[in-house]
Amino acid sequence: MQKANILLIYTGGTIGMVRNEASQSLSAFNFDALLKQIPDVKLLDANIETASFPEPIDSAFMGPSHWILLANIVNDNRDKYDGFVILHGSDTMAYTASALSFILRGIDKPIILTGAQLPIGILRSDARENIITSLEIAASRYPNGESVIKEVCVYFEYQLMRGNRVLKFSSQQFHAFISPNYPALADIGVDVKFNYENLLSARNNNIPFQTQLCPDIIAYTLFPGQSHKFLRKLVESDEVRGLLLITYGTGNAPKDYDFEASIRSMHEADRPVVNISQCYSGRVRQDLYEAGRWLQDLGVISGKDLTREAAITKMMYLLGDEETSKSFRHWMESSLAGELKP
User: Fold this and answer.
1) In sequence order, what are the beta bridge partners of 153?
2) What would the pLDDT profile of 224-247 be if each residue is shown by its tens digit?
3) SS3 for 339?
């Protein structure tokens, strides 16, 4: 079997910083210095090429235009490479991974995002292991040459997780991400142990490559004693295309006059309202309590066990296309890329 061809894409973030010995400041990563920083990359059984954003950015500035740029890089090179590894800042990695899982759901190749909590130039950095293992996983194939991984993933601190199932859990620990509602795709120790039963199977390569994203949504988190007058003013404008409610427990919310009026306004304008839980783990069950049933009766869509990041990017994706926006409820409640349990 020929060596796998892997494209390593650098977007910016902590992982791509090295310390300038003269000034002791952190400066942007230089791809030409990659093998000097991580000489063990040469030992991998893969041909590795590199690409970079024209101007690498802190992941706090990442947004839909950057997701589309990344998606185009992958799509334009889908026939040239066997897998892709994206170096990305950890702050918004879960959003990017979720967005790419929808945009690139017609590509059945490994697309692995990774990063680091410490820059690659720092002695104790977690960057080296994260990069090396991500590349190794992206190059993993069955004896027939087929890639083991056929989806967008996040690799961090010895675990490979589905990209649209993760959330950033810690800003201090190397174990920065968790996947509370879906098990790991692979556990890494002495060996790479793939959990084959958790992997996505080959996908439909005929799915249209759709890069239109609608950012005109509101993510609205509830808290006790909250005034909903501001929400009502916002949703009564024509600019809000979708509303994501981040509610209590299994999808519960107080029945406040302005809050109810806001939801009715969205429903009457045929603009979707989606309900997800503030809890890391579990799923929305709007029929379980009266505090959730009234939302269901108003036509609020259950986000089931979606993460906040997956819910937001999925809404952007569905509302960005005329066809999927027409049948929004159906697609929102369906699993497009393994992001929810139906």
Assistant:
1) 112, 162
2) 999 999 999 999 888 999 999 999
3) coil
- Same domain, residue pair 228 and 160: no
Residues 6+ apart with CB under 8 A from 171: 117
Give the residue carrying structure tokens 């990069």: 131
Between CA 85 and CA 341 the distance in angstroms is 27
pLDDT by residue (tens digit) across 194-226? Answer: 999 999 986 666 788 999 999 999 999 999 999
Domain boundary, last residue among 171, 198, 225: 198
Task: Report, as residue numbers or ranges, the catalytic residues.
Answer: 14
CATH code of the domain covering residue 137: 3.40.50.1170
- Distance set, CA 43 to CA 46, 194, 232 (Å): 9, 21, 59
Q: Is the pLDDT of residue 116 over 70?
A: yes
Rg (C-alpha) for the chain, rounded Å, is 21
Burial 185-200 (b: 16+ CB within 10 A, else e): bbebeeeeebeeebbb
211 falls within a domain: no
* CA quadruple 113, 10, 67, 205: dihedral sign: negative
Geometric angle at alpha carbon 337, from 333 and 342, rounded to 5°:
35
